[in-house]
Amino acid sequence: MERKKSENFIIDEVLKGNSTAFELLILKYQKQLFLTSLNIVKDEETAKDIVQEAFLKAYENLGNLRNKEQFFPWIKRIALNMSLMRLDRDKRFVDMYNNEEEEDDYFFNNQTDENDPEKEILTEELRRYVRKYVDSLPAKLRVVIILREVEDLSYEEIAAMLKIPVGTVRSRLFNARQIIKERLINQGLADGLYKVS
Amino acid sequence: MACTKYRKLINEFLDNEIAESEELVLLSHLEDCADCKTYMNNINNIKGSIKETFSHSSINIDLSYQIMGKISNKNRVKNHIKNKNLLIKVAIIAISFILPIMFGIFFMSEKHYASNDDTERLVLEHLEKAQNTQLIHVAYSYGK
Asked: What is the DSSP letter of A70?
């Protein structure tokens, strides 16, 4: 509660004309917004641009924010909408995680859990493949699964954001998970972690 | 596949989006179907892995300098426009004061000329009545 109050204070200060107070909000939320945007657009530079634009838009429209405690959800929604618009406008994103070089030295770059190094390696490998398979999904499926699993949006919120029926959200999620599950099983990651079904 | 319907319900159940009536149907199915239980476990694991994988990033960024620079630029432009608007307002107020005054001065002088004309006409009428053509001629030439 105290934390929210301090955020209210910062917003009040910005609204009074003390624009430097806004820097505290940037420092606090930029990384989360960057990650949100990066998960959608899959390009670091584009994600950075979006974070900057989102903060500028938030700064200009701060007076319209009714509930000051909702600053983060509000700016996150701005960043998400911008990311989706950018994705829609430009589909030429490079898959930064499908880098062969990264795959080659993958095992040498990871520290293992001394207690159970085998399990740690397996978990890391699973994460790597999950990222790879999610990133290689068709954009329509990928965006829905990111919004659901990472951003915790409800079916209705996703439908509203993407301007598609709730039934479409449901079927896209189902299909996306089906594809990822099949690929993980084919990769052999089913052994020990995923029983085939 | 007989379980397809239940597989969809499992997804909705794990997303907390399932209708209450369907939840009961699913639960009674899961009691008898080992495959669907495995499927549910798989989807749950996938959900967890996606969340874990995409919620963290080792990339460190600091865009505060760029963003604050853009904000101060915008504020500068805004202040410039504000000053310009203030200047325009002052000019409008000044004009709105000066114009009526000038108009009043002009109107008063017009009235003054008109009253001179009225006097001249009265003199001429009086002289015409007096039928003094000589005086009329003199008055005309004087008037001109």
From this structure: G
**Under a CB-based contact definition with an 8 Å cutoff, are residues B17 and A156 in contact?**
no
**Calpha distance A72→A74 (Å, rounded):** 5
Chain A residues with CB inside 8 Å of B71's CB? 19, 22, 56, 59
Q: In chain B, whose CA is at the least distance from the CA of A48? A: B63
Model pTM score: 0.70
What is the nearest CA distance from A123 to chain B, expressed in angstroms?
Answer: 9
**Phi, psi of A72, rounded to the nearest 5 degrees:** -65, -50
Residue A115 gets which letter from DSSP?
S
Q: For residue range A164-194, what is the model confidence (pLDDT) as tens digits?
A: 999 999 999 999 999 999 998 888 775 445 5
Tell me if B63 and A48 make a contact (CB, 8 A cut-off).
yes
pLDDT exceeds cutoff 60 at A68: yes
Whether the ipTM is more than 0.90: the answer is no
